[in-house]
Amino acid sequence: MQVKDILKSPSMPLMNPSYPFGPYRFVDREYFVIVYESDPDAIAAAVPEPLKPNGSNRVFYEWINMPDSSGFGSYEESGAVIPCTFNGEDVNYTAMMFLNDEPPISAGREIWGFPKRWGEPKLSVKTDTLTGTLDYSGERVAMGTMGYKHEGSFKDPQDRAAMMALTQINLKLLPDVNGNPAIAQLVAYNLEDITVKGYWSGPARLHLVPHVNAPVADLPVRKIIGGRHFIADLTLPYGRVIHDYLKD
Questions:
Q1: At residue 77, does pLDDT exceed 60?
Q2: Run of H or E including 11
């Protein structure tokens, strides 16, 4: 195989790439987000410089159901996001993610630096309750509940679309073959072509269980602010490097 053919591959392995070229389109992507206040010292310990926590002491714990995603298939995801600032701009930093599908784990880590590991998240409606769970190695590490569609927020769904378009930041770390860091970057991206199909809010609760390999409870729950439930179509484009630890 010639070099030009090798370089045409979108990803490894060469004979059966894990994922195709992007951008990646998601249809009917369903979010369940619980907003809560956590410990400021725990938040500071989870946020890499030069990012700074935004001072609200808030964390977004989320479940996402992705039934139709180009190149990735159908899967679910769960994890924690921390509101931060970068050079005075409001951004969201993704602290940890767990999902049940290999292609988006590989693509997420290799392209954007998403902190993805294998887990077993599940988002479903249990009679009158929107319910999210996360299991790791057969153990329950997170459960969130919200009153199902208690309050519709349809007055201007584009307000939600604007919030979804906020700059998202990941820490991308990839080792070289000798074990030294080959890539150490803060990577930014912005979701595009967002169409919000439904948006609801309501009372919520969140239970996090300490686990060494799924440390969601390291951002402890101090006070629940509320729950958000929304469905949208969107596109995940390629990202950009905003800070290079090996050069800056």
A1: yes
A2: none
